[in-house]
Design goal:
35% of the residues lie in helices and 25% in strands. 41% of the residues are buried. The chain has an eight-stranded mixed beta sheet with strand order 7-8-9-10-6-2-1-11, sandwiched between helices. A three-stranded mixed beta sheet has the order 4-3-5. The chain is of the alpha/beta class. Pfam families: LplA-B_cat. GO terms for molecular function: ligase activity. Keywords: Ligase.
Amino acid sequence: METWYYVDSNHLTPALNMALDEALMNWHREGKIPPVLRFYGWDPAGLSVGYFQKVHGKIDVDSVKSHGYDLVRRQTGGRAVLHDNELTYSVIVSEQHPDMPASVKEAYLVISQGLLEGFKELDIAAEFAIPEGKPDTNGSAVCFEEPSWYELIVDGKKAAGSAQTRKKGIILQHGSIPIEVDETKLFDMFIYKNERIKERARKAFSDKAISINNLSPVKRSYSEVKAAFQKGFEKGLNLHLEPFHLNEEQWSEVNQIAEEKYSNDKWNYSR
């Protein structure tokens, strides 16, 4: 059984959340820390947009701000995700790790075993998505509308969304496990031609995505969900998780990355 670091960073700002993922990648690349599993929440709630995603004309920036949310651009691709009442996870591991396949798709399968086991801990019968035919190309800016390979679905609805990137030999896979979803607020974040089209998209969304508390016979708190997925990753990836707490110098580095990059409008709005 391999030992990984376990970082429980609780609720941070969107900029700090993205900066901490990047710092952990740097430290693992430099050999300062082993692979990492991290769990976190968002305060304030945030809309994260994919690395290549266009903001202008797609995201209603005024609405994001009026709800008190922060917009932040991820290192990973994909569509926008509203991170509110959810558990977010990150896995940081070397591409050279003996258990990590070379292909992104197959690495998804390995890492997502932890998610599958986490749902089992909550008595939720999730399974891996195996998309048929061509990937969805409907042009929507909203994540969770279509599952990708090996994302977790329950009764055909997406229950966890993930994204992966590889930078200088290090894999970062992070993802969103919604505990509750406010569909009205979610669809306020996006620009539609008119209200009718927005309402139609919102109604269709409820047939495509589902949250923990829509699935669980009892309401689950953030801490209960976190504990379940910690056990799930230990089981699914056969890990011993050792708690890791950042020191003052490390937090200073994270804050610097957040300030220079993830709090910067140039990074967030004009990729």
